[in-house]
Amino acid sequence: MTQDAALLGQLDNEAQQTNPSSAFVAIGGAGAVSAVVEEFYSRLLADPATTGFFTPLVESDGLAALKRHQVLMLTKVLGGPDRYAGRDLQTSHGHLAITDETYRRVSLHLLTVMHDFKVPMDILQAADGILGSVRPLVVTGAHGDAQ
Ligand code: HEM
């Protein structure tokens, strides 16, 4: 686990106080979200269709920061505390020329990992809906591009 234990504890405490019936709490809180994020990036790095996007980050030691941002974004999206301080999705992905095909692949990796971690079906469906709605912010590559 590469996530800061103190931060995860704060997220859980705050969630219990402010929104105990959230999907974030239901799936097991910050520990569960962090485990999902770790596995998600393991799969993206193991997938030949996606690994190349992350090479610059791996080489510059930026993967830990990306995982941290992803934990905070997922926490927020699942109704947990809002601590996300990364860039918005359009700004952080605009230069990557991500195609629809790559986006669908990455979305499936995320949903599959959540399913493997026993996230309930109603939350998976909500996550699928959110992935559909933010797609235009992430997909900027033309159909048929190499990536
Ligand atoms: C499925 C919806 C997606 C979500 C919710 C998402 C979320 C995020 C977040 C929160 C960040 C961090 C932004 C920051 O650090 O300021 C990020 C960065 C990044 N994402 Fe995504 N992402 C998605 C799809 C994708 C896809 C399809 C790819 C390509 C395979 C991708 C590749 C990257 C890369 C390479 C970065 C780092 C960019 C950089 O720092 O230069 N993401 N993403």
Note the main attributes of this structure.
147 residues, mainly alpha, Globin-like, binds protoporphyrin IX containing FE
Characterization of this structure:
The protein has 147 residues and is mainly α. The chain has a single domain, classed as Globin-like (Orthogonal Bundle), CATH 1.10.490. It is globular. The chain starts with a helix and ends in a 9-residue tail after the last helix. The model has no long low-confidence stretch (mean pLDDT 94). The structure holds protoporphyrin IX containing FE. The site of protoporphyrin IX containing FE has 21 residues, from helix 4, helix 5, helix 6, helix 7 and helix 8.
Describe what is shown at a glance.
With 147 residues, the chain is mainly alpha-helical.
Number of domains: 1
Order of helices and strands: HHHHHHHH
| Annotated CATH topology | Globin-like
Q: Output the structural class.
A: mainly alpha
User: Quick one: CATH superfamily?
Assistant: Globins
Distinct small molecules bound, one entry per kind: protoporphyrin IX containing FE
What general form does the structure show?
Answer: globular
Taking the sheet with the most strands, its summary is: none
Figure out the total of helices: 8
User: What does the average pLDDT come to?
Assistant: 94
